[in-house]
Amino acid sequence: MPKNLIIHNLEVRFQVEGDDKGVFTSLFNKHIQAWARLYEDECARAERSDNDRKLGDSGGHR
Q1: Sign of CA dihedral 34, 39, 40, 45
Q2: What mean pLDDT is reported for the chain?
Q3: Other CB atoms within 10 A of residue 27 CB
Q4: 1, 15, 40, 43: which has the fewest Cβ within 10 Å?
Q5: Which residues have C-beta within 8 Å of that of residue 43, sequence separation ≥ 6?
């Protein structure tokens, strides 16, 4: 699982009509949840790959 995440620069700009805070909250939640799912999938893939390499290093013995 990746241990470090470094964000050097993050800038977000948007224009909305109506309740800015509600729209921002809704969009932020939608996109952060999508990012979290992708991140968790990548971590799981990396762990499976690491486990597969460990099996290969055992010389065929489990």
Answers
A1: positive
A2: 83
A3: 13
A4: 15
A5: 1, 2
- The span from the CA of 28 to the CA of 25, in Å, is 5
| Residue 28: half-sphere exposure toward Cβ, Cα within 13 Å | 9
pLDDT in tens, 3-16: 788 888 989 887 77
Distances (CA, A) of 52 to 40, 48, 55: 18, 6, 5
Identify the residue whose tokens are 């224009």: 15
Distances (CA, A) of 50 to 2, 28, 45, 46, 53: 12, 32, 9, 6, 5
pLDDT of residue 17: 75
Q: Where are the beta strands (DSSP E) in 1-62?
A: none
Task: Report the residue count for the chain.
Answer: 62
